[in-house]
Design goal:
The complex is a heterodimer of chains A (163) and B (246). Chain A contains three helices and ten strands; from the N terminus they run βββββαβαββββα. Chain A has helices at residues 55-59, 80-85, 147-153; strands spanning 2-8, 11-16, 20-25, 39-45, 48-54, 71-77, 92-106, 112-114, 125-131, 134-139. The longest helix of chain A is centred in the C-terminal third of the chain and has 7 residues, at 147-153. Chain B is an alpha+beta fold and 246 residues long. Chain B has two domains: 2-71, no CATH class; 81-149 and 167-245, OB fold (Dihydrolipoamide Acetyltransferase, E2P). The longest helix of chain B is centred in the C-terminal third of the chain and has 13 residues, at 233-245. The relative contact order of chain B is 0.15. The chains are: A mainly beta (163), B alpha+beta (246). Chain A binds chain B through residues 5-7, 10-12, 24-28, 43-48, 66-69, 100, 102-103, 105, 109, 132, 134, 136, and chain B through 2-9, 51, 53-58, 62-63, 66-67, 70-74.
């Protein structure tokens, strides 16, 4: 399993590269009102509007540095509430922003791992792997947004802004 | 080879020691690390220095230009397209699915096989040290034209840059079927290149045409004002199988 690594507040994290469509420079997002602070806004991605999630705010109370290495990871996921409605649930896209989005690594290189925690408020925290002398925590992107928020952003299959 | 590349960048303002220019491949090559890494591009020192490139602010206008790029709608990738290699046989343009193709190479000397050489089976040709069967696609498709013939240069080429390269090529095709891998070579008069053809752009072969070329043709499409036939690799290989088994 290939992982896309990045950092938040100096700590290494990773997501599965399978879910990643593209990594982009940090373009401006239009802020959205009545949203938790980790939803930075919505931005235009290849003609579609995609919500932008600030992992600095989501994982720690951290303001991301405005560097070239602070980039948007455009990911595709299948929200659980849409999967329950039909078998062929559409996928939705999110833009995740974090620091040092510059390298990938292989989960097979992990020396040891710590199983995923099951914290009700932080289901997105996945396995912790020890790779090349660094301790990397996997994030489960399906759980990054609270179910109510994800259902609110992408209400029903027909209204998903993706064809 | 980036196994030693740290995920966390050390935030240093220290000037980068460009050791690759001093003792590396751009320098005097005295670096002992060149023994295991062979080239500086495999060395973690260079990888670390390269990653500091990202550790700065975006240049002016960069994000604005990206915003404009992302405004452009996504072009749907046509997964229903077939990739073909287009080539010319005499006056006719044909193509084969690129999946069947192994190699395109220059014309070379043909070794005729006594009593076996026919209008279709031409002989043996040396491809990377292996003798491969060479056939005439012109003959198999019953075209009027003849395949190009290799001619040894009369005199050494003095100024190769000003020599117009002959356009004829040998194509090596391969099929791995139930009889094991079959590899064949044939000569074409010209290669135009690889093209992706959408299924919607393909036309059926008119049913009134019934010569061998039409029977081996799956579809037609237009390429640069020419009508190009997509040959059916299965038919071609079947035809060749009949040829050598008879």
């Amino acid at each position: 399993m290939q992982l896309l690594t990045f950092t938040v507040a100096g700590q290494p994290y990773a997501i599965e590269s399978r879910a990643v469509i593209e990594v982009l420079p940090l373009v401006q997002a239009r802020p959205l009102s009545c949203m938790p602070d980790y939803v930075r806004g919505i931005f235009t991605y290849r003609g579609h509007l995609v919500p932008m999630i600030d992992l600095g705010r989501r994982l720690a109370d951290h303001t991301l540095a405005e560097r070239l290495s602070t980039r948007i990871m455009v990911v595709e996921l299948r929200p659980l509430h849409l999967a329950l409605q039909s078998d062929r649930a559409p996928t939705v896209r999110l833009g995740l922003i974090a620091e040092n989005v510059i390298s990938i690594c292989s989960a097979e290189d992990a020396d040891t791992s710590f199983p995923a925690m099951q914290l009700p408020d932080a289901l997105f925290l996945g396995k912790i792997l020890r790779i090349n002398g660094q301790t990397v925590q996997l994030l489960i992107i399906e759980h990054l947004l609270a179910p109510a928020l994800l259902a609110g952003l992408f209400p029903a299959a027909a209204e998903v802004p993706l064809s | 080879m980036n196994d030693s590349l740290p995920i966390v960048l050390e935030n240093t303002d220290a000037p980068i020691d460009a050791c690759w220019r001093r003792i590396g491949v751009s320098g005097d090559r005295s670096c002992p690390e060149l023994v295991p890494y062979i080239h500086c591009r495999n060395c973690p020192v260079l990888a670390r220095a390269a990653s500091t490139f990202f550790d700065r602010n975006a240049p002016e206008g960069y994000l604005e230009s990206w915003r404009a790029i992302l405004e452009e709608p996504e072009i749907p990738t046509d997964s229903d397209a077939l990739s073909v290699l287009i080539f010319r046989l005499g006056r006719e343009w044909m193509s084969l699915p690129t999946a069947t193709l192994v190699e395109i190479t220059t014309l070379r000397r043909l070794h005729r096989v006594p009593h076996r050489t026919s209008t279709i089976l031409e002989g043996l040709v040396n491809i990377r040290g292996q003798l491969q069967l060479c056939f005439s696609l012109h003959g198999l498709l019953e075209l009027e034209s003849k395949p190009p013939v290799y001619q040894a240069p009369q005199q050494p080429v003095v100024d190769a840059d000003f020599q117009a390269l002959p356009s004829a090529r040998l194509l090596v095709v391969d099929r791995s079927g139930q009889h094991g891998a079959e590899r064949w070579v044939f000569a074409v008069d010209e290669v135009a290149g690889v093209q992706r053809v959408a299924r919607s752009a393909m036309r059926a072969v008119p049913s009134t045409v019934s010569h061998a070329g039409a029977r081996s043709t799956l579809n037609l499409f237009d390429f640069q004002e020419q009508t190009v036939g997509i040959l059916d690799p299965a038919r071609i290989f079947e035809g060749l199988r009949d040829l050598i088994s008879s």
